[in-house]
Structure formats: structure tokens, C-alpha cells
Amino acid sequence: MPEINTGDTAWVLASAALVMVMTPGLALFYGGLVRGHNVVSTVMHSFFILALVSVQWVVIGYSLAFGPDHFGIIGGLDWVGLHRVGAEPNPDYAPTIPHLAFMAFQMMFAIITPALITGAFAERKRFKAFVLFSILWATLVYDPIAHWVWGVGGWLRTLGALDFAGGTVVHISSGVSGLVAALELGPRLGFGEKPLEGHNLTLTALGAALLWFGWFGFNAGSALGAGPLSASAFVVTNTAAAMAALTWMFIRSR
Hints:
Blueprint lengths: L5 H28 L5 H28 L2 E2 L3 E2 L23 H19 L9 H24 L4 H4 L8 H19 L15 H20 L7 H26 L1
Antiparallel strand pairs: 1-2
Helix pairs in contact: 1-2, 1-3, 1-7, 2-3, 2-4, 3-4, 3-6, 4-6, 7-8
């Protein structure tokens, strides 16, 4: 029987909390970039997703993404409502931490991914349509892709696909979906007629800082343990973010 490592467990739970902070950070980041009369709705997109996907993940999302495989496409319903997901580690995914800890960490990825898309339709979607889109996208897009890449038996995982911290599951899926949404909805009202400046870049900077902070959990936590791999991911994450910030500031100053 796998043994729980308390250090690994503490780090993964702390990382889950760090990744959770990224969603409010994203709310501030997007909120500062839109016009003043759209700030509340833009911020609420991210906060609503935080609540909605948390419930969806516990009820059915985790089972669809990581449950026993069906034809390499989707997980089964064996773990609906977190049935049989408890304190004992799951050796297929994270042998040194409680299964619940792994589930919680993955839940934060499932939350922030649809939240990333909201920037593509800021100021252009009714709230009811947003709610329907979010629950359908999480269930019909994110959960199957997560199973393909990360789930035992998933067809991309079987082919040898590697995704350490969501390059495919999080970023490609949200990026493509955001592009499609932006193309379908068209530009914001007033685009091309006058500059659409963000109303509060201080909010945007604060949101970016929270995203930078949370990314340590996002990447280093994906090692699913406290060790050399997580330390390497931590250093690389900070170095990449710092270099990107310096490059942006250099370009803007010219």
C-alpha cells in the first residue's frame, strides 16, 4: 500500500491554494483592462467560475477527467461525487499524497482554464449565456481533454504525450476556445473608432502580480511532491516571468 509523505502532501495542498489565488488575480487583471462600466461583470466572470467549476468538479468533472478509462476518450462515472476518492493515495497519479489532495490540486486547474477564456469575450456576452457556456465547456471540453492527456488510458497519454503543467490541457484548450469565441462574437463596441483604454491599470498590475505568485504553485506543484523537480520548476517559473517582464518593459519604453 502506498505511504503518504507529509512533506509532499503539504506542498501539493499549498500549491493548490496558490493556483486558486490565480483566478481572483485573473479577475483583477481582466477587470483593469476593460472600460469602467464593465468592470463588475468582468470580475464576476472569474469569481463565478471559481464557485461553479468547484461544484462541477466534485460532482462529475473529476470522475470524467481521471476516472477509470473508457475507450481512451473519457473517464467513467465510478468517482462521481468523489465516491471512493479518499485519504488513501492513488498510485496511478500521485502515490505519496492523499487522493483527495491530488483531486483538489487538479480542481484548481479545471477552474482557471475556463476563466482564461473570459478575456476573449469581455464586454460582449450576457451573463446567462456565460453561465451556460462555462458549465458546458468544463464538462464537454476540459474534462475529456484532461483525460486524453493525463488520465490513465487516455489516448494521447498512451501515445506518449507529455504535459507537465497544462501546456495542452490548460493553455492550448483555452487559447483555441478564446480565439473561436472572439471570432464568433466580433470586436467590442467602439473598436476602431476610438482607443479602448483599460480603466485601471493598477488593478491589472496587481492581478499580474497575483498570477506570478500563483504560478509557483501551478508549475512547481505539478511535480506532486517536494523535491528536486519542484525546485527546478520553481526557479524556471520565476526566471521566465522576470525575463518576460523585462522584455515587455524594454519594448514599451522605446
